[in-house]
Amino acid sequence: MNTLKIIHYEDGVKWKSLEHNGPYxxxxxxxxxxxxxxxxxxxxMKLSVAAEEVALFFAQMLDHEYTTKKVFRENFFKDWxxxxxxxxxxxxxxxxxxxxxxxxxxxxxxxxxxKNMTKEEKQTLKEANQKIVDQYGYCLLDHHKERIGNFKIxxxxxxxxxxxxxxxxxxxxxxxxxxxxxxCSKDARxxxxxxxxxxxxxxxxxxxxxxxxxxxxxxxxIKYIMLNANSKLKGEKDWEKYEIxxxxxxxxxDIRNTYLGDLKSREMVTRxxxxxxxxxxxxALRAGNEKEEGETADTVGCxxxxxxxxxxxxxxxxxxxxxxxxxxxxxxxxxxxxVPVISKVFKSLKRFMDNKEPGDELFDRLNTSLLxxxxxxxxxxxxxxxxxxxxxxxxxxxxxxxxxxxxxNVAEKLLSYNRANRAVAILCxxxxxxxxxxxxxxxxxxxxxxxxKEQLALAKSELKQAKKExxxxxxxxxxxxxxxxxxxxxxxxxxxxxxxxxxxLGTSKLNYLDPRISVAWCxxxxxxxxxxxxxTQREKFAWAIDMTEDDFEF
DNA sequence: GCATTTACTTAGTAAATCGATG
DNA sequence: CATCGATTTACTAAGTAAATGC
Length: 554
Fold this sequence. Notes:
Topoisomerase I, Chain A, domain 3, DNA Topoisomerase I, domain 2, Arc Repressor Mutant, subunit A, TopoI_cat_a-hlx-sub_euk, 17 helices, isomerase, three-stranded antiparallel sheet, 4 domains
């Protein structure tokens, strides 16, 4: 357990043998039935197959907010016109004159029909899907059968970037076998391309973990077919990640002293680096790589913060030296926080912002590469994101210790667990859109609680009466207890749900919290592991569930 | 006991990080 | 140093299962 890296093979080699059946391709486009029409400027118009397919992509999304956005509409229209025949192109010049109504209606009918399928039809469909999974969903890696995470080629459609993405609405093209690179071992059977097709390339690169790849046409980036999270390869990588974070725990005090000392440096780079590290450590900010302007939504992380993203307050809400953050991070999720900082950091920030305007970088001498180089010199394997893992996991461990009691019942223990989990999610700014039916379902639950309370009160008085008349057979006592338990459970549920309105627990659970902390907690608290990890999660964290004793400490 | 609502799971894929490459 | 490639992290939506009400 002391060696950090599991050395399986010589450097960089990920496997010795890899065999699979290639990716699964989405079905071909089925042209619209003859009674479904597209209209331009009020006139019926039969589209070519290529133009029709793209029209359907748009029509399918008509209920979505995307289709009301200017950028989305413009990008879509531009790309759609490229798919048209010259004749179509000369007619169709204005998206506002396009009537997708019938196509949209047809789509909705189809969705409805799928929902209303009989049990048998659903069963048939399920079996067909299972057949696809059986055929394409697994591979042999070093003679072990492993599940593939995403074995399907992404179907064509309209690009749905997050936030104000400049490329939203562009046509994501259909991928052909001729676009796909297959990776497998030399001695493996090469997967058959679909009939009449060939692969772009077959290579045998055992220094990577992917089975197939293609280049996507929106950003020109590469997409990969990779293993499921429960695979040995991914599991070991995950374990390594947490071991590095634990190693940070052992030297984090030194590192903190180092960057606090660096705040006094005469070198601008060093001071900027120190302040950035202070943020990354204290606030669990992401590194913040620079991004190409105009290619993606305007989002930032620590190193790419600009002056308009922070406001300095000498005094705010009774605190001194408060930094107010307001920026869009990964996935255009807003980060808003008011944080009291030490005065040296505050003064440095003021200096960094001198003579700068909105749009200028706060840390103009710093980038993630520089920062990570420095970090790796402090501890092998240390990068900016290790701080997030470390701070997330250590927070969970602390919170669990603080919040949970052995004497609590299971529902209360789980509330404590969720609260600890939530503290981490808040730290990492993992948000979700409040569920559309949140208010309603909250009101429903409250109504049920009230009803139960009433019932309980009634039952209590009845019991009293029964005891008085000495005709109680002892079983209404138990009934009452059950009723009380149920009420408590619902109240706990209500609290939990309310507190969780805008917070997503999944991301931290899956990616930041050392599962051994949770496994040890379950053992200690005598909570079944199934209560905190569902089947998928148990599979992913099988390594931790197997190896962890109740005395594990992160 | 069945239909409907609600909760939970899984799939899908975009968007980050970070080291390698030229 | 900028770009690229591989891998991890992220949220949303669709699908499915469970709970609930009639």
